[in-house]
Amino acid sequence: VFTGERLTAADTRHCVNSISMKFARPTADGQYYCDKGWEHFNVGQYEKAIGFYSIAINHIQPGPWEGQCYHRRGWSYAKLKQHQQAIQDYDHAIGLDPEYDLAYSHRGQSHAVLGEHQQAIQDYDQAISLDSAYELAYSHRGQSYAAIGQHQRAIQDYDRAIMLEPD
After folding, report:
1. Molecular function (GO) terms listed (predicted)?
2. Integer angstrom CA distances of residue 10 from 7, 23, 94, 111, 125
């Protein structure tokens, strides 16, 4: 109970630390570990991110976080150029949420890097069917069309991407 007395800097630090520890405590559902993985991903620490996502996946309860953890771990693998592992995680994320457009697009990117442009195009098609304004999916699909010599289709996709995101 606040009595009107001024708090010292040490009291304030103690309160902030206590509150931070309460809310930073790992949860049984793994969401905490998924968040920690995302923090490491965002600063380019992909190996650490994979470790946290793996812990999250082992502790997570079924729900929206589950697919997101698999997707983000896959994205971390892709950043490390481990595209086969990335594809496996994207597959799992899509299995949990068949409308996860970003997982389709990222899986398409991994297929494209591996030279599997037909599979990449199928993934981009699916991402676009889920979000017709997904500019990057059009751009990446255009790259895959160009890689297999379908230049007219590539140009159409590039034009659509530019129309959606002119800057």
Report:
1. molecular adaptor activity
2. 8, 20, 49, 54, 57
Instruction: Express each pLDDT in 102-156 by its tens digit.
Output: 999 999 999 999 999 999 999 999 999 999 999 999 999 999 999 999 999 999 9
Instruction: Answer for the pair 97, 116: CB distance below 8 angstroms, yes or no.
Output: no
Confidence (pLDDT) at 29:
60
pLDDT of residue 1: 38
H helices present in 60-150, as ranges: 64-79, 83-96, 101-113, 117-130, 135-147
CB contact at 8 A, 74 and 54: no
For the chain, list the domains and their CATH numbers. Answer: 26-98 (1.25.40.10), 108-167 (1.25.40.10)
Q: Rounded to the nearest 5 degrees, what angle is found at the Cα of 39, between the Cα atoms of 91 and 16?
A: 140
HEC readout, 114-138: CCCHHHHHHHHHHHHHHCCCCHHHH
Among candidate residues 132, 139, 129, the one with its CA nearest the CA of residue 162:
139
Q: How far is CA 20 from the centre of its chain?
A: 26
CB 141 within 8 Å of CB 124? yes
